[in-house]
């Protein structure tokens, strides 16, 4: 297996983590030719090699996007929603000057994305995450990024580690090619580092196969539980990853967090830029660099920022902070993984569409919002989501908590609350199935699962409101890696509903009223 | 434990059509595609959408009032010009603005385009493309799924159909960037012989009937072909060959991956002017464009891949796959658990362009027809210059392609003083001549003189099973050259080519 020559002065050699597929991938032979060509001393080389349509045949010469102006108000999101703010036009041209022209953006390109776009994103990543020594690969959003990273490392028979409640749209994908999941126990603060270590220590390669070498987590505004990992837990988890040689996939949907205190206000990952309860400084600095610095200081340090080994692949997206249909994101990783991801992109999706790359490049450029303006938008977006969260919590208190059948957490980031339902108060709740469990630590001892299913269906069919039941997110347990003493089976802890506060106040209010009513009816017959 | 709404309705529909056709599509699926689970969140969402008035608090979709784009405008050529491509290139024609809005009426609202969707793509775009398909190919019974262009679509089809150890069939010279993408999945390629008219049906038949599963593994069940302007050879399959190939596929139960990015770039078409006047461009073009495998696909064994890369721009990264509904559903599941649906920007643009406020399908076909004229002009220029500067020496020859962007130039190495035919192959099917060495020498010589063409060896498929005796390296005496560059590139490039060839041979 030939690997590109990588400068290994910094970081560890992590090539042994690559899957067979990633190792066996053959470089595009046309690229070999391009390399030979690039080494040619002839300066005015005529190329009759490729079938790129000439740019004069592209049927567009200008693209314009109407976007909010972010400079004229301290809260651009509210102004935009009220239609009270100014708008600004972002232009892309074919023949006139702009940050990334139609002429440059629309030909065939290589996997990592266009240089102009990678440069603005690298600049943004450096400003916000200050990673030690990393490279940016563009993706078509987090789903594309994550599933590509899974293919990069996952081999039939491998086990990957993740939160015991995780995002099945992602965790289901490598199941199809034989990667299994090991769920790590969580509490309200997210994944418990000691539990992670326990699983690794207890792992018996003779029985269970290769010890897990990949950890997939959503550290901010975790989906579905809404929890955010503290700095202390992050440090412990990184140290465990170093000891056990784990790759960390940090899924950082650009999240806002809810500000709270200075120590625990950190952004989530896909939800990283949606963090709440961030203490607001008295004045908004006029100096752009100051503004960015202040903004950064309100965000939680990422795994990427502490990644001296190069074992973190951080996955970011514009979906949550611009729009899901953008389908544009990026992976930040060490150089070897960056090159492998670029090869894989060449052999699958190809680089992201020109529209998104042009839009983001113009937006972050001098002609658009600039990085500072984008941070202003993010900050304002956090405030908007925080208001929605607070609104949901208020209505919840009034309409649901008052029933005594459920409670809710107050997430610091993301878009979800995790509603705990007190099934033990239900007249048909059954406990004490130990006899049926045969002593297995993972077999349910209560009928929680059945009641949750009933509740989900009742809410949907008679109340007309849909929440996602926690069973959808539960990673199946296996007695091979679960403690036998004192362990409460996950099935008995699967007593939650995930609710979003991303909707309108009307939806939130109606939804909570229906939930309260549905709970009363469910528990009282 | 997970109580998902079942996907039975869709599955039942697929099963019913299976029985009608007495075809077992699932036999063709890879192990991975068979066990892939539907996205559970999307399944719940689908059920929840069914009942009007249901409040969905399940998903984390940002509300559309938070999208920071309320309008997109694209300045495009007016399609009312007599020859829109010429007017556009010379900046003499009118221009139009195609607009998408978030809060105002349009064909595909940005509220929909920028939200999360499902793997197949948005209904507005799929419907428009299904309509285009119907008017061009009138396929028997097929479903349209969107892709991120043909590379994305094709590599997804490989994952859908290929298991480690499988052998797939392809043309002996083909677009190796794609065939290489299948190698790490454990798929081996079996090359089929070609002549000037493309792949030879009798050779396909020979390979299949001689196949010995005991020594060669599973008999190939997939063929990958580029029927129009085959890349790199530029050949276009005749209707007769297409029918023969489809018949062989029918007999041997082969899935046909019809990769057709150059379908719309056809030359010397003889479009009937009175048909245009009477029925419009779509009907007039459909009458003269080649018949696709899709159009004859009564078994549902064709997966046809179309793309906007060549007729709009490569950076569009948008295309569509037309297949039976069973494969379409499996493909959508793979899309949902990998790249996700295509970007909203491209979908919005296409929906408006093909919609009633844009060019419409017929206007789009007028653009395509005008584009064909422009590329045909470039091809003709290329062939004229080639005759004057290159063919005259007798050291190289080429046929004018009927479609696409490439000319396949044969180098008549047998006239070279150092050409040797007495080499002993070191492996079965290995070369008996020094063709590769001479071609490599010529490629480097051209590079030194300031010209790049693609050597045939880049596209040569060496038999992956080691049993074919194909001696392909004796037949790599070709270059692929494109005529899509400017007139100047064509003139200067071919002048260098002719001069360098003479130096090389003499």
What do these coordinates show?
The complex is a heterodimer of chains A (525) and B (506). Chain A has 525 residues and is of the alpha/beta class. Chain A folds into two domains: 111-382, Aspartate Aminotransferase, domain 2 (3-Layer(aba) Sandwich); 385-524, Alpha-Beta Complex (Aspartate Aminotransferase, domain 1), CATH 3.90.1150. Helices cover 36% and strands 15% of the residues of chain A. In chain A, strands 4-14-13-10-9-5-6 form a seven-stranded mixed β-sheet, with helices on both faces. In chain A, strands 15-16-19-18 form a four-stranded antiparallel β-sheet. In chain A, α14 packs parallel to α18 (505-523) and α16 crosses α18. The radius of gyration of chain A is 25 Å and the shape is globular. Residues 1-9 and 254-269 of chain A have low confidence and may be disordered. Chain B is of the alpha/beta class and 506 residues long. Chain B has a domain at 371-505: Aspartate Aminotransferase, domain 1, CATH 3.90.1150.10. Chain B contains 18 helices and 17 strands. Chain B has helices at 8-21, 31-35, 40-50, 84-89, 110-113, 123-137, 150-161, 176-182, 201-210, 213-216, 239-252, 273-279, 281-288, 325-336, 344-354, 360-389, 435-448, 487-505; strands spanning 55-56, 71-77, 95-101, 143-147, 167-171, 188-192, 194-195, 198-199, 222-225, 255-259, 302-307, 319-323, 396-397, 406-411, 451-452, 454-455, 478-482. A seven-stranded mixed β-sheet of chain B has the order 4-12-11-10-9-5-6, sandwiched between helices. In chain B, α9 runs parallel beside α11, α12 packs across α13 and α16 runs parallel beside α18 (487-505). Mean pLDDT of chain B is 91; it is low at 1-21. At the A-B interface, α1, α2, β1, β2 and α3 of A face α2, α3, β1, β2 and α4 of B.
């Amino acid at each position: 297996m030939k690997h590109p020559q990588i400068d290994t002065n910094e970081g560890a050699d992590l090539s042994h983590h690559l899957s067979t597929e990633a190792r066996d991938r053959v470089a595009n032979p046309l690229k070999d030719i391009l390399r030979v060509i690039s080494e040619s001393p002839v300066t005015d080389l005529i190329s009759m090699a490729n079938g790129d349509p000439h740019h004069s045949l592209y049927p567009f010469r200008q693209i314009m996007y109407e976007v909010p102006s972010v400079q004229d108000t301290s809260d651009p999101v509210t102004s935009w929603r009220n239609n009270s703010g100014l708008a600004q036009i972002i232009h892309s041209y074919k023949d006139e000057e702009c940050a990334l022209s139609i002429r440059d953006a629309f030909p065939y390109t290589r996997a990592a994305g266009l240089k102009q776009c990678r440069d603005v994103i690298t600049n943004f990543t450096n400003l916000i995450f200050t990673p030690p020594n990393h490279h940016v690969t563009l993706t078509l959003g987090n789903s594309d990024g994550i599933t590509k990273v899974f293919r990069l490392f996952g081999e039939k028979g491998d086990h990957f580690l993740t939160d015991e409640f995780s995002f099945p749209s992602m965790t289901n994908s490598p199941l199809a090619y034989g990667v299994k999941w090991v769920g790590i126990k969580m509490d309200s603060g997210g994944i418990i580092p000691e539990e992670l270590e326990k699983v690794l220590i207890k792992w018996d390669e003779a029985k269970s196969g290769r010890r897990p070498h990949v950890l997939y987590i959503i550290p901010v505004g975790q989906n579905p539980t809404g929890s955010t990992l503290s700095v202390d837990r992050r440090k412990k988890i990184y140290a465990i990853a170093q000891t056990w040689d784990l790759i960390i996939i940090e899924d950082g949907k650009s999240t806002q967090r809810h500000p709270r205190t200075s120590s625990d206000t950190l952004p989530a990952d896909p939800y990283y830029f949606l963090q709440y309860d961030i203490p607001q400084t008295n004045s908004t600095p006029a100096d752009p660099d100051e503004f960015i610095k202040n903004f950064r200081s309100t965000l939680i340090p990422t795994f990427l920022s502490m990644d001296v080994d190069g074992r973190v692949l951080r996955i970011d997206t514009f979906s949550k902070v611009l729009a899901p249909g953008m389908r544009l994101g990026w992976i930040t990783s060490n150089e070897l993984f960056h090159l492998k991801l670029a090869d894989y992109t060449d052999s699958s999706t190809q680089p992201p569409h020109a529209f998104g790359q042009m839009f983001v490049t113009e937006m972050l450029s001098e002609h658009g919002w600039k990085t500072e303006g984008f941070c202003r938008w993010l900050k304002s977006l956090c405030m908007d989501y925080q208001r929605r969260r607070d609104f949901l919590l208020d209505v919840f208190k009034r309409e649901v908590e008052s029933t005594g059948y459920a409670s809710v957490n107050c997430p610091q980031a993301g878009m979800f609350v995790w509603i705990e339902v007190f099934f033990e108060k239900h007249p048909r709740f059954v406990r004490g199935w130990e006899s049926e469990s045969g002593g297995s630590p993972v077999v349910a001892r209560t009928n929680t699962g059945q009641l949750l299913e009933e509740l989900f269906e009742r809410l949907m069919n008679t109340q007309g409101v849909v929440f996602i039941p926690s069973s959808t997110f539960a990673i199946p347990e296996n007695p091979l890696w679960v403690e036998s003493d004192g362990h409460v089976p996950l099935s008995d802890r699967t007593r939650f509903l995930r609710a979003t506060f991303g909707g309108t106040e009307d939806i939130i209010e109606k939804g909570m009223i229906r939930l309260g009513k549905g709970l009363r009816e469910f528990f009282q017959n | 434990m997970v109580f998902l709404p079942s996907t039975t309705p869709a599955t039942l529909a697929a099963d019913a059509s299976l029985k009608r056709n007495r075809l077992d599509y699932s036999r063709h699926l890879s192990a991975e595609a068979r066990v892939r689970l539907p996205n559970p969140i999307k399944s719940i969402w689908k059920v929840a959408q069914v009942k009007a008035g249901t409040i969905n608090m399940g998903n984390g979709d940002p509300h559309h009032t938070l999208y920071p784009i309320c309008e997109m405008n694209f300045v495009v050529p007016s399609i009312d010009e007599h020859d829109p491509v010429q007017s556009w290139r010379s900046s003499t024609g009118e221009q139009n603005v195609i607009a998408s809005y978030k809060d105002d009426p349009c064909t595909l609202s940005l509220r929909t385009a920028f939200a999360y969707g499902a793997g197949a793509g948005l209904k507005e775009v799929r419907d428009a493309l299904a309509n285009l398909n119907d008017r061009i190919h009138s396929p028997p019974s097929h479903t349209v799924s969107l892709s991120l262009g043909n590379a994305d679509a094709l590599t997804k089809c490989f994952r859908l159909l290929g298991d480690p150890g499988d052998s797939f069939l392809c043309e002996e010279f083909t677009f190796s960037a794609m065939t290489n993408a299948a190698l790490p999945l454990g798929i081996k390629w079996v090359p089929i012989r070609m002549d000037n008219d493309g792949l030879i049906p009798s050779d396909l038949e020979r390979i299949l009937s001689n196949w010995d599963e005991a020594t060669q593994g599973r008999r190939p069940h997939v063929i990958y072909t580029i029927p129009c302007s085959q890349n790199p050879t530029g050949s276009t399959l005749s209707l007769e060959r297409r029918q023969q190939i489809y018949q062989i596929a029918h007999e041997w139960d082969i899935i046909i991956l019809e990769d057709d990015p150059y379908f719309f770039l056809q030359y010397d078409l003889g479009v009937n002017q009175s048909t245009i006047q009477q029925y419009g461009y779509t009907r007039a073009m459909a009458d003269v464009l080649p018949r696709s495998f899709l159009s004859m696909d009564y078994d549902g064994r064709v997966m046809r891949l179309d793309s906007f890369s060549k007729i709009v721009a490569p950076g569009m990264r948008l295309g569509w796959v037309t297949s039976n509904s069973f494969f379409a559903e499996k493909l959508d599941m793979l899309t949902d658990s990998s790249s996700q649906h295509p970007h909203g920007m491209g979908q919005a643009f296409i929906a408006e362009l093909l919609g009633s406020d844009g060019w419409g399908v017929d206007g789009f076909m007028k653009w395509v027809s005008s584009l064909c004229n422009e590329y045909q002009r470039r091809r003709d220029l290329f062939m004229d210059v080639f005759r004057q500067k290159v063919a005259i020496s007798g050291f190289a020859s080429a046929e004018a392609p009927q479609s696409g962007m490439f000319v396949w130039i044969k180098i008549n190495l047998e006239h070279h003083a150092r050409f040797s035919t007495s080499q002993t192959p070191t492996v079965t099917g290995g070369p008996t001549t020094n063709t590769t060495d001479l071609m490599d020498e010529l490629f480097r010589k051209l590079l030194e003189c300031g010209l790049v063409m693609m050597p045939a060896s880049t596209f040569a498929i060496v038999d992956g099973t080691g049993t074919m005796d194909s001696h392909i390296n004796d037949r790599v005496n070709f270059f692929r050259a494109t005529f899509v560059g400017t007139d100047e590139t064509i003139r200067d490039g071919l002048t260098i080519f002719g001069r360098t060839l003479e130096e090389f041979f003499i």
